[in-house]
Amino acid sequence: MAPIRVSATVAATPTTIWETCFAPMKWESWDCRAHVKTGARGGLGGLLKADGKVLISAVDDATSKIDYSFELKGLLGSIVAIIKKKECVEGTEGGLANMVKLSEAAQKN
Fold it and tell me: What is the C-alpha separation between 108 and 90, in angstroms, rounded?
């Protein structure tokens, strides 16, 4: 499976995004499917690997861009990615939308 890539412009600084979504590793706050907080990668040996990458870039003093990609790898990962492509895309888009929502709310406070 090729990585699913999504991006959004956020009315929040990179620091706010990082502190809200990543510094405490609150993955479950923006991705309800995340149950294990072991880092950015997870997997089941070489059979199934999940690779999520987030790049946060400043656009100006009050705005940032989030580039988020997600990919399933390995023998089982490739099969799941084909069978559940819609769910993988929706999950990636939903995770990004939640990062935006949480970060913009935190920036306002």
Answer: 27
Distance CA 9, CA 57 (A): 9
The sign of the dihedral angle between the CA atoms of 73, 3, 59, 16 is: negative
Structure tokens at 5: 């890539």
Residue 38 pLDDT greater than 60, yes or no: no
What DSSP string runs through 31-82?
-TT----SSSEEEETTTEEEEEEEEEEESSSS-EEEEEEEEEEHHHHHHHHH
Q: How far apart are CA 31 and CA 95, in angstroms?
A: 5
Report the alpha-carbon distance of residue 84 to residue 51 in Å, rounded.
16
Spatial contact of 66 and 54, defined as CB atoms under 8 Å apart:
yes
Tokens matching residue 102: 């949480």
Q: Is 50 exposed, middle or buried (0-12, 13-18, 19+ CB in 10 A)?
A: buried
Q: Is the pTM of this model over 0.85?
A: no
